[in-house]
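Priority: medium. Attachment 1 of 2:
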């Protein structure tokens, strides 16, 4: 495919959102000029304070957070909402990148959410650089806090663009919008993000005692020292998760992943029933008619042989279309608490899910979507909505550490970290050095006879499910062969390995539409050229911050 350098000239229009602990106002859609909108210190601080909520809603309230969860085969759903049915059905179809697609809004949420956060952070930093100070006698560290926080949001926002999209723009505090900005590939965007975040870690450690107000992250008693630890966690996640296939994941600097993971800490903002909430944590945790546990997720724990002989079989198209829901027999206490027989009434709830005894999803849309098992891992949050929303858990860090040891052929240390969740939570038989390391091509498995790689992969999918929406997808992507085949528990053939710039944005950029995915397109880098119509593009639309308020999902809303 001919590679043509794409450029963008951006006219930045600032958008402010003022909010306090109790309520939020939506954006000023008149987009006032920056000098007037950010004339007062309180305005600047309010803008910077809002940037993380923009990021959070752009990931946890994005429509694509739903379809990406189903593409990762942790959650299964055949409802049409947010494009889940179209994009997760089998055989996999190519992603519809047309602005006219009924779920185009879901597909573009992350792109616009991340660049809204980035542009707002840049505006806030520019205001401080222009001479506005937030410091007061009562809060002499306000400038430091605001600058570090804004740079952190810029870093994590760029990282998510690199995780999800094939390319993007790199925008930092020094970007000159009078010059054209070039589109670069996901590796370049991620490299820039990591550089930003490593700088944030340095700044946080230099100002460790500075507090971060609770309403900035919805976490109490938080300091820049704590933010440094969370940033170490995110750097470990992003370095591992950016890989598009097994070869790229193998080439990751795993020593750096381990170092960051071991210096990291969990991350869980607290919900408020209004604007601080999460689609997947909420709807996925309390609604029995919504999503179910995919059998590719829980089947590798099955001891009865039904998953292997009745459900998985040869993975042929005929087998896939003939699949039916099955009961799982497992010692994994996260799936079944006890009574592990094929009798659904004998299975008591596990720690993360339970057997409902019925498969709710519509059979005509593909019986392979249907599952008896409902994930209730997030019930603690979903039932009251003012509990922690666990985006990043300690198990993720432990298992990234385990993978780093597996890749270094260090079985003794790998089993220590695998068993933290395998034994400590699942109550399964401990993994041992004698199991053998195996290979990164091994399928996930919880069974005693499985290799350490197989046991690790099972744990990584189990513990990552219903934390960050992209985690099951990025792990499976990193276990996928270079031509998109199902390689050691990777993405199903034809699953997009990343997503294009949204079709609506391509129209503004005067670029040809293109897309990814589709079983018939395996091996193709994209399904259309990436060229400019006239050699230059101007972008004159601003990003507006408009927060989504939590709404109740009813059975009638499913279609």
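Attachment 2 of 2:
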């Amino acid at each position: 495919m001919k590679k043509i350098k794409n450029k963008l000239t951006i006219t930045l229009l600032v958008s402010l959102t003022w909010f306090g602990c109790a309520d939020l106002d939506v954006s000023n859609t008149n987009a006032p000029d920056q000098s007037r909108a950010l004339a007062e210190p309180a305005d600047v601080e309010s803008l910077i304070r809002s940037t993380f909520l923009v990021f959070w809603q752009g990931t946890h309230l994005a429509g694509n957070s739903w379809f990406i969860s189903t593409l990762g085969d942790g959650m299964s759903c055949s409802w049409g909402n947010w494009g889940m049915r179209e994009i997760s059905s089998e055989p996999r179809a190519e992603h519809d990148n047309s602005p006219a697609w009924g779920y185009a809004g879901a597909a573009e949420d992350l792109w616009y959410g991340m660049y809204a956060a980035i542009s707002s952070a840049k505006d806030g930093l520019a205001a401080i650089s222009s001479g506005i100070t937030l410091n007061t006698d009562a809060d002499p560290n306000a400038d430091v806090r605001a600058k570090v926080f804004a740079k952190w949001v810029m870093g994590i926002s760029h990282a998510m663009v690199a995780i999800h999209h094939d390319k993007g723009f790199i925008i930092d505090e020094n970007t000159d919008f009078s010059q054209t900005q070039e589109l670069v590939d996901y590796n370049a965007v991620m490299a820039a993000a990591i550089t930003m975040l490593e700088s944030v870690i340095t700044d946080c450690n230099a100002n460790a005692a500075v507090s971060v107000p609770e309403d900035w992250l919805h976490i109490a008693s938080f300091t820049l020292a704590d933010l440094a630890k969370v940033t170490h966690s995110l750097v470990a996640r992003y370095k591992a998760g950016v890989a598009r296939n097994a070869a790229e994941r193998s080439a990751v600097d795993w020593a750096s992943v381990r170092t960051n993971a071991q210096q990291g800490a969990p991350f869980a903002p607290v919900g408020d029933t209004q604007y601080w909430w999460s689609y997947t944590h909420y709807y996925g945790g309390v609604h029995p008619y919504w999503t179910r546990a995919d059998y590719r997720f829980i089947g590798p724990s099955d001891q009865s042989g039904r998953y292997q002989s009745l459900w998985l079989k040869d993975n042929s198209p005929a087998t896939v279309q003939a699949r039916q829901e099955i009961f799982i027999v497992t010692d994994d206490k996260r799936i079944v608490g006890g009574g592990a027989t094929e009798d659904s009434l004998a299975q008591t709830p596990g720690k993360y899910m339970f057997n409902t005894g019925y498969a709710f999803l519509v059979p005509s849309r593909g019986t392979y979507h249907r599952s008896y098992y409902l994930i209730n891992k997030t019930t603690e949050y979903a039932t009251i909505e003012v509990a922690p929303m666990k985006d990043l858990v300690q198990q993720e860090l432990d298992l990234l550490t385990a993978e780093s040891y597996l890749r270094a052929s260090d079985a003794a240390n790998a089993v220590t970290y695998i068993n933290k969740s395998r034994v400590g939570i699942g109550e399964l038989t401990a993994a041992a050095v004698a199991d053998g390391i195996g290979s990164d091509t091994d399928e996930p498995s919880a069974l005693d006879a499985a290799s350490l790689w197989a046991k690790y992969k099972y744990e990584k999918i189990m513990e990552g499910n219903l934390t960050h929406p992209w985690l099951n997808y990025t792990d499976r992507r990193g276990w996928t062969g270079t031509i998109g085949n199902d390689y050691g528990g990777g993405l199903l053939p034809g699953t997009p390995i990343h997503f294009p710039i949204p079709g609506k944005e391509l129209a503004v950029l005067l670029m040809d539409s293109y897309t990814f995915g589709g079983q018939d397109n395996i091996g193709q880098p994209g399904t259309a050229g990436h060229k400019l119509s006239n050699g230059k593009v101007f972008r004159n639309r601003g990003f507006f911050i408009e927060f989504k308020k939590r709404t109740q999902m009813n059975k009638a809303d499913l279609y």
